[in-house]
Amino acid sequence: MDTAKGFSVSAWVRPTSLDKDGVVVCQDGTGEQGFTLGYDAVTQNWSFALPANDVESLGEWKAAVTTTTTCKDSTTKPVCPNEWVHLAGTYAAATRKLQLYVNGELRKTTVRQSTWSAHDGLQIGRAVTKPGYS
Known about the structure:
Elements: E1 7-13, E2 22-27, E3 35-40, E4 45-51, E5 60-62, E6 69-70, E7 76-77, E8 85-92, E9 97-102, E10 105-111, E11 122-124, E12 128-129, E13 132-133
Antiparallel strand pairs: 1-8, 2-3, 2-11, 3-4, 4-5, 6-7, 8-9, 9-10, 12-13
């Protein structure tokens, strides 16, 4: 898919561990992922990341969920372990809007421009790093 144009990506996810980052879906680029949908352990939230461009700028914007959910065990957390959740990320190139949905609810919107297209393979459950896939 051409990540410089508009696209949507979604997946059902059931995180069993929240102690490390978890990539649900991403698309390989040359030096950076074209997008990443997954879990960010630092913020302890879901995220949808879209880099500004490939190798020239390794910065990225993460649409992290900032609201909480009541888990099955009655606790309130941003992400509930061992519970299914539907994640969806959309990027509209015409309006430059990057949006993150959790269980059909819009959780974050921002304006972001992607200036490149990651044309390498779509990855499910892994992302490439310098040492290889993880």
